[in-house]
Amino acid sequence: MKQFQLLQGFIRQNASTFVSMVLLVAVPVVVSSTLAYYLYQYQGLLQNLELWQMLLYFVAVSFTMALALTPTTFVALVSGFYMGWPGFPGVVVSYGIAALVGYSIAQLIDHGKMMSFLNRFEKARNLMQELREQSWSLIFLTRISPVLPFALMNFVLSLLQVQRNKFFVASIVGMLPRTLFFFWIGTQANDIINLLQNPDTGTSGKLLMIGLIIISIGGLYFVFDRALKKALKKASAKN
User: Fold this and answer.
1) In the chain, pLDDT over 90 holds for what percent of residues?
2) Contact 141, 214 (CB under 8 A)
3) Is 67 within 8 Å of 24 (Cβ atoms)?
């Protein structure tokens, strides 16, 4: 009964956080489909942009990615298609900015409530502390995966209260392999709708994606396992 009451209190206290996390997964799918249709209707919209227009575009996509309006893969494909390799540095920087914006928004929504609740329990507090100490590896491994939603991971990692500078750098480094790959796919495409609906990654691309997923899952398992063992050891040493 006590555990059920704790669970009820946890859900009630963090309701806004949970709702936000669900929206961060669902919204990008809907918005990106709408944008794909719009780009098809106005295919010349992003062609031959001047420098100031490119800068404005990358500022805009930084916020759309942070707000989960556009998936990172969508931005890489579209940028590669319309801008070619001169646009690649802008995509990388915009990912970093989007990560920081998402981090800040999550903090404003949560106000530290999640950590405050978990810190009531010694084992959970020790585990969170251990994960923060391994934050570089944790961030890198979540970013390298092509299946973990970018905006949702911003939210989750913000709740863990990882250091902002590590969050920024590790996010960019972790995103590079798949960013580079999908940007290249965009530069090779001839039609924007076909590109967004069914990016032709080929056998080598599929193998790369599988490899990144395996690295991410295996690495995260190792990080969590090590953090959990250290947390339990620390808790048992006090008792």
Assistant:
1) 27
2) no
3) no
Per-residue pLDDT tens for 134-156?
A: 889 999 999 998 888 888 888 88
Q: How far apart are CA 18 and CA 218, in angstroms?
A: 26
Cα dihedral across residues 97, 160, 135, 28: positive or negative: negative
* Per-residue pLDDT at 116: 73
Cα 173 to the chain's mean position, in Å?
12
Q: Is the pTM of this model over 0.85?
A: no
HSE toward the beta carbon, residue 145, CA cutoff 13 A: 19
Tokens 């709702």, located at residue: 19
Query: Which residue matches tokens 């919204």?
Result: 27
210/221 Cα distance (integer angstroms):
16
Give the helix ranges, DSSP H, for 84-133: 88-110, 113-118, 122-133
